[in-house]
Amino acid sequence: MSEAVAVEGLEGFAATALAAVGGARREVLLLSLELDPRLYGSAELVEAVQRFALSSERAELRLLLNRTELARRGHPLIALARRLPSRIQIRQLSPERRRDRLDELLIVDGRHLLQRKDARELLSRWQTEAPAVAKREREDYIQLWEESEPAADLRELSI
User: Fold this and answer.
1) pLDDT digits over 49-87, tens only?
2) N or C terminus: fewer CB in 10 A for the chain?
């Protein structure tokens, strides 16, 4: 297990998230307060997500959002998810869980973990090759996912 590395600021978080997604092979799980475009809206990140999503039929990408208001305003990851609905799944936390989860969490391949305990904080923690910690966080994430609801307001309606 590697030591946790402090990641400072929004730019540091965004750069670390880009590197993590760029190295993903099987699974990317993202829990976000509101999918802040400063963290997840760069063209480079969207391209890395697209490459990952199309890299294999087994590649799995899940976005779990606390609030969807900001994401509804033309977020590039949401636009990509609309183009690749079979590859990128999006859900919203259940109303009971929304008050409890104010963190940003990225789990890659069940081994790497980027976490900011409170989305309003500027300090994050990055751990690579930390399967035990990532496994616990992944189990919590899957539980939240199963309790969540589809983010219907983010789906594209076609007529």
Assistant:
1) 999 999 999 999 999 999 888 777 889 999 999 899 999
2) C
- Residue 58 DSSP class: T
Crossing angle of helices 43-55 and 76-83, rounded to 10°: 20
107 contacts 135 by C-beta, under 8 angstroms: no
**What is the C-alpha separation between 62 and 145, in angstroms, rounded?**
9
Under 8 Å CB-to-CB from 144, ≥6 apart: which residues?
A: 31, 64, 93, 97, 101
CATH class label, 5-154: alpha beta
Amino acid at 7: V
Beta carbons of 143 and 154 less than 8 angstroms apart: no
Per-residue pLDDT at 12: 97
Rg (C-alpha) for the chain, rounded Å, is: 14
In this predicted structure, the answer to whether residue 159 has a pLDDT above a threshold of 60 is: no
pLDDT-derived band of residue 15, with 50, 70 and 90 as boundaries?
very high
For the whole model, what pTM was predicted?
A: 0.92
CB atoms within 10 A of CB 69: 10
